[in-house]
Amino acid sequence: AIDDAMQFAFFHWGVHAWAVYGIVALVFAYFSFHRGYAGLVSATLVPLLGEKRMNGPLGGTIDVLAIIATVTGVAATLGFGALQINEGLNYLFKVPSNFGMQVIIVIIATFLFTWSAWSGIDKGIKTLSNINMILAFIVLIVLFAVGPTLFTLNNFTNSLGNYIYNFFGMSLR
Questions:
Q1: Do the Cβ atoms of 12 and 173 come closer than 8 Å?
Q2: Which keywords belong to this entry (predicted)?
Q3: Domain locations in the chain?
Q4: What is the pLDDT of residues 127-142, one digit of tens each?
């Protein structure tokens, strides 16, 4: 069961997901850098609907809908993440698990995200990325030092092998 679970984790968070993200990024990059349009969803629809329509109310409506969809997706993820962080803090440090604590976690996360975006790639996003990488390596080292190292490595290689072996079958389901 563990191998199957990890195989599907690779499937959902691996090549398939990043291929979709990459296609979207290529579309935005093409229209932004090659065609000189703004980095808006409506700009990617100019060849289909025309520049006049995309610079008018229809383009604005498409951009507003894209913003609403993005905010809704981020809000749901942030809410579920706050619940998980709160339960983890409760388990490790006996921090109360309640709505007030979850609101505090959401406020802290929102502040960090806002600061990161506001301060730009060179400062905010780079700083958070570096902190994230350092913490990830610390967790990796601790897990290998005190965890079931052979089990983890065996499980990883078996699951990755199963994912590669079943790549096309899983892709076409």
A1: no
A2: Cell membrane, Membrane, Transmembrane, Transmembrane helix, Transport
A3: 120-173
A4: 999 999 999 999 999 9
